[in-house]
Amino acid sequence: MVEQVPLNHALIITTLMFFIGVYGFLTRKNLITMLISVEIMLNAVNLNFVFFDNYLFPGKLEGHFFSIFIIAIAAAEAAVAIAIFISLYRNIRSIDVEEANTMKH
Amino acid sequence: MGYQYTIWIVILPFLAFVINGLGSEKLPTKISGWIATLAIGISTFLSYETAFQYFTSPSGEKIIAFKTIWLRFNDTLHIDIGILLDPISVMMLVVITTVSLMVFIYSQGYMKNEGGYDRYFSFLSLFSFSMLGLVVATNLFQMYMFWELVGISSYLLIGFYYDKPSVVAASKKAFIVTRFADMGFLIGILMISYSTGTFDFEILTKPEGLSFSTTSTFLGFSTITWALLLVFMGGAGKSAMFPLHIWLPDAMEGPTPVSALIHAATMVVAGVFLIARLFPLYSAFAPHALGVVAFIGAFTTLFAAVIACTQFDIKRILAFSTISQIGYMVLALGVSGYGGEAALGYTASLFHLFTHAFFKALLFLGAGAIIHAVHTNDIREMGGLSKHQPFTHILFLIACLTIAGIPPFAGFFSKDEILAAVLTTHPIYFGIAVLVAGLTAFYMFRLYFIVFWGKARNYDHSPHEVPAIMLIPMILLALGSMFTGFIPFGQFISSDGQPLVGHINWPVAISSVVFALSGIGVAWKFYMKESSASDNMAKAFGSMYTSATKKFYIDEIYILVTKGVIFQMISKPLAWFDRNVIDAFMNLLATKTNWTSMQIKEFQSGQLQKYAFIFISGVLIIVLSFIYATR
User: Which tens digit of pLDDT belongs to each residue from B159-197?
Assistant: First the structure.
């Protein structure tokens, strides 16, 4: 029987991952990097699901299914996001988020 | 035989209006006159047929030739449209269609070179339709609708030359003044129908079946008296009675045939017709209202006659003469009783309406012929026209003799009946009426002598006789002026439907003829040759003469009341309140909202990460505050 990772540890690592993602999303100017930051946040959430499932309902798989859903949706989201970036690049020759500001007041 | 065909009398002019109004682009211009004339011609024929059929059948009953419910609110409250034939409406049908037909024919010559020929004829047809619908109305509400239609067509025709500012002002004035009076009419209608529960003339003109409380309710008059006074206000507005007469002289800005048709023969007598229509009500329930009617009539007839003596515009003289003659009719109605010999005034009034339509239309058409020839309205620039326009001269002379009341022309008979009716009831009014008979003769012959005799002026081009298409209607009207006096009018038209045998009251007749002849004599003395007598006379009267020239400053008083009192005292403070309080509050709200949004619009930077930052901060604040709160 393998020793379980304590929940505290798991929560610390997912919280760290999540806020690293937030930080990256707020500070990076490159849209691709921002997309990667979003993926980090999503994966933090995935880990949370897996840990809580294991901790609260051991032997059941609901949390795992959620994780798989999120991974699938993240893939779709990445496809859409990159399509948007490409068309943005065609229009303004840049994928810098600060250049994409035509929706301002 | 039925009377169903009478519906076409009304509908045909309407069809002409629609065809001319809608098809003016597609039809050749000149055809519009013929369409309108043909329509009114058939109407005229049908009216004569109706009159013949109606008056040869023995009964003087009211006949409903056609009736349909137009607007139904519930079983008791509904507004009908229909055709009511009784002696006065049949008489009016004949008058209106005859004068209309003459004017339509005359207009084809008079308006030949004017722009808007088709517009003119479509409006003229609209007018005829409305006037015919008015006189055959079966109920007060139908009458009111056509009354307003008449008003609007009068407005359109006065404003026919709409590119002249004075014309626009005149048409607006006519519309507003009559509309103001119609407000009284409408309130009167509502009061009458509220207390009787019906609009229908059949019930309203049989006063035996009605009951009103005659106790005084407001300022010493009963409800029905007030209602009938308000109805008379509407009639006074249309018939240009003092003090609502101010629009009629200005209405002379319209084309002259229009003045002949609308502002002399037909529309302006609508008020007389209205009082005659409701006469049983007046006489049975509101003797005070009849007293007011008589007073207004007597005052107006003298007032307008005095002004007419001092004017120089040929059409305005005729306009004031019209006001004065309608004053006669109103006076006669006001002094009349109901039934029997006492009702002579009623018959006399409508008789005068009938004859007046012919000779006044003739006078206006004659004036139109003169204006057509000399291109001015000012009689001081005319003179010696009898050489240039022999036919017009003769016809105008006939009309002048008729209006002056010289036997055997028609005006003599109708005026004599009025005078006889007034004499038996109000001697003072009789004095006024006889004086006015003299004044009428004076101002008409003043006009006649100045225009046709006097000193010949130098005209730019020699005045010419008018074409036959204008002369023929005038000749027909002159025949009407000469011979309609011999119609035994009382046989056909009386207040209670019983024949009234009219006979000439010789003392009255002789006195009125003497006054008329002396009026003509004075006019001949003053104006046949250029003389200073008239100027001396004017000087002798001094300020009185000046104020009569200025129409006794009634227009100025109106301006003073409307501009000085209503606009300055009421409208301006209200406008100030509206602008500075109500609008200002709304404007304040709008500017403050605008200011606030300007202040916060910097948030809308278009920077995705700024939005995300604010969003995440917000979420964090909410989450932290929840955690803090649940602790």
Answer: 888 888 889 988 998 899 999 999 999 999 888 888 877
Helices (H), chain A: 7-27, 31-56, 62-92
Q: How many CB pairs under 8 A join A and B?
A: 30
**Which residue from B370, B470, B359 is spatially nearest to B405, judged by alpha carbons?**
B359
Q: Is B540 exposed, middle or buried (0-12, 13-18, 19+ CB in 10 A)?
A: exposed
CA B266 – CA B287 distance, rounded (Å): 27
Residue matched to tokens 């800005």: B253
Interface with A, mutate which of B594, B608, B611, B623 (most A CBs under 10 A): B608
Handedness of CA B214, B217, B220, B222 (dihedral sign): negative
Q: Which residues of B touch A97 (CB under 8 A)?
A: 607-609
Give the span between the Cα atoms of B555 and B122, in whole angstroms: 32
Is A100 domain-assigned? no
Task: Give the span between the Cα atoms of B484 and B352, in whole angstroms.
Answer: 10
> CB–CB of B359/B481 below 8 Å?
yes
Task: Give the domain range for residue A49.
Answer: 7-92
This complex has an ipTM of 0.84
**B103 exposure class (CB count in 10 Å sphere: 0-12, 13-18, 19+):** buried
CA distance B455 to B383: 5
Which residue type occupies B614? I
pLDDT band at A105 (very low <50, low <70, confident <90, very high): low
Q: What is the pLDDT of residues A3-35, one digit of tens each?
A: 777 888 889 999 999 999 999 999 999 999 999
And the tokens for B326? 């309608």
Give me the pLDDT at residue B186, please: 92
Question: Is A1 a member of any domain?
Answer: no
Total domains in the fold of chain A: 1
- Which residues of chain A lie closer than 8 angstroms to B607, CB-CB? 97-98, 101, 104
pTM for this entry:
0.78
pLDDT at B210: 65
Q: Which amino acid is at B79?
A: I
* CA dist., res. B113 & res. B122, Å (int): 17
Per-residue tokens: B140: 């007060």
Q: Which of B465, B334, B346 is nearest to B396 (CA)?
A: B465
Kindly calculate the radius of gyration of chain A based on its CA atoms and give it in whole angstroms.
17
Answer whether residue A2 is part of any domain: no
**CATH code: domain of residue A86:** 1.10.287.3510
Residues of A within 8 A of B608 (CB-CB) are: 97, 100
| DSSP reduced 3-state for B139 | strand
Give B601's Cβ-side CA count (13 Å radius).
9
Helix (H, G, I), strand (E, B) or coil at B216: coil
Q: Which residues of chain A from 27 to 56 reach within 8 Å of chain B, CB to CB? A: 27, 34
What are the backbone dihedrals phi and psi of residue A30, each rounded to the nearest 5 degrees, phi first?
-80, 130
Residue A97 is assigned to a structural domain of this protein: no
